[in-house]
Amino acid sequence: xxxxxxxxxxxxxxxxxxxxxxxxxxxxxxxxxxxxxxxxxxxxxxxxxxxxxxxxxxxxxxxxxxxxxxxxxxxxxxxxxxxxxxxxxxxxxxxxxxxxxxxxxxxxxxxxxxxxxxxxxxxxxxxxxxxxxxxxxxxxxxxxxxxxxxxxxxxxxxxxxxxxxxxxxxxxxxxxxxxxxxxxxxxxxxxxxxxxxxxxxxxxxxxxxxxxxxxxxxxxxxxxxxxxxxxxxxxxxxxxxxxxxxxxxxxxxxxxxxxxxxxxxxxxxxxxxxxxxxxxx
Length: 281
Ligand code: SF4
Ligand code: SF4
Known about the structure:
Alpha-Beta Plaits; 9-stranded mixed sheet
């Protein structure tokens, strides 16, 4: 039987998911539960509870004879009511695709892109699928990047990395208490990946979210990352934005975005510590 993977969406052209123009593939499912996640509907797989079905204004959702929720993309108007309704941080609009299904979509944009970026959710939950997909994409001459939360130990199983041009790694927090509170997942494997990816020359970029009024937490993470990466890859400092963040966490983290001037303080710190490629978005 052919391998399939749950795909949340494919964006044919993106210039924010790695260098140049790329196709971005977002997989469903993530082992983290970050409080600041702005697309929490990608965290879990749908369990077909049916709660979102009655609210769909175009009848794009139905429950089939096996009790599974089915989505008809031709009827969907992308109103997101189902996502707002879902109590499980899931989405009914996920397609289980084979490598060939994905390749068919990528071939349409292939003349205009330099490569693809896989993201999520967390793309490395689909490692076996990625190995086949990247192998096919390389035959087309396309580069393959992974946008990862660092939860997968790349050194312990380097097969996916060996068919990829590299990883854009999130380092969300380094101070243990703040990390555990923010992410609900141990930080050790992420920090191990930071060192390992640097050592094999496959760290394409590091990303850290800068939170409003969190001087000590922001500084600890930025200082650690900057001292580790130096000038070996870009360091993207992303301003926290409340859009999409679950309400209970917005109440804690902020209902407003991190101000640019505040984030710039940490970019300056990163550059002082050697990360000359630090910038704010
Ligand atoms: S986004 Fe969800 S609720 Fe809205 S039309 Fe599509 S399936 Fe229905
Ligand atoms: S998307 Fe959420 S609400 Fe809809 S059926 Fe799946 S788990 Fe239930």
